[in-house]
Design brief:
Blueprint (H helix, E strand, L loop, with lengths): L2 E8 L2 E8 L3 E5 L26 H9 L2 E4 L1 H7 L3 E8 L5 E12 L5 H9 L3 E6 L6 E6 L7 H11 L2 E10 L10
Antiparallel strand pairs: 1-2, 3-4, 3-5, 5-6, 6-8, 6-9, 7-8
Length: about 180
């Protein structure tokens, strides 16, 4: 299995992740299941294709309704699903990155003006987080150039934000820290 290196900045530290080629994760949207093609078991990549990924984490994500598919299946099912990039943290744990990120703007000017500033980067505000000014949960607009990591990097390079961190989904193991 080949991997692509990805990175983002979290609390001033660069976090490096590995992204396996040829695998994305999908979870069917229950509200759209009747209107769109749902994720079928036939779309799932063979077990051997996820063999280099942590088996316990793959099982946990599958139990939570995620299906690991080839990118071609992701494109045909996009309208009825939540799509996530599959990544491996430095610790070896599997995480998923959707199109969401949490960010804090420098010099916030209020939700409406802040939303307009972010729109130039292909980002739309999903929620205003009230415990600090200029803090938002956002998503990368569909069809925008780049993914959540690319947008995070551009926002930081532009100096528009104090931080822009992709929201990562991870499996939580059993109590006591033991992983099965």
């Amino acid at each position: 299995m080949n991997f692509r290196e990805r990175e983002y900045v979290c609390r001033g530290r660069t976090i490096r992740l590995r992204q396996p080629d040829g695998i994305v994760a999908l979870r069917a949207d229950p509200a759209a299941a009747g209107a769109h093609r749902s994720v079928a078991a036939a779309d799932a990549v063979p077990a051997a294709a996820v063999g280099d990924l942590p088996a316990n984490d793959v099982a946990a994500f599958r139990s939570a309704g995620w299906t690991f598919v080839a990118p071609a299946a992701e494109r045909s099912a996009r309208a009825a699903t939540t799509t996530a990039e599959v990544l491996i943290e430095p610790s070896g744990r599997l995480v998923l990155a959707t199109d969401r990120l949490t960010l804090k703007l420098k010099g916030p000017q209020g939700p409406e003006l802040d939303g307009a500033r972010l729109a130039a980067f292909g980002v739309e505000v999903v929620a205003t987080l009230r415990f600090a000014p200029g803090l938002y949960q956002c998503r990368v607009k569909p069809g925008h150039d780049g993914d959540v990591f690319d947008v995070s990097e551009r926002l930081l390079a532009d100096g528009l934000v104090e931080f822009a961190e992709p929201d990562l989904i991870s499996a939580i193991g059993p109590r006591g820290g033991e992983r099965r």
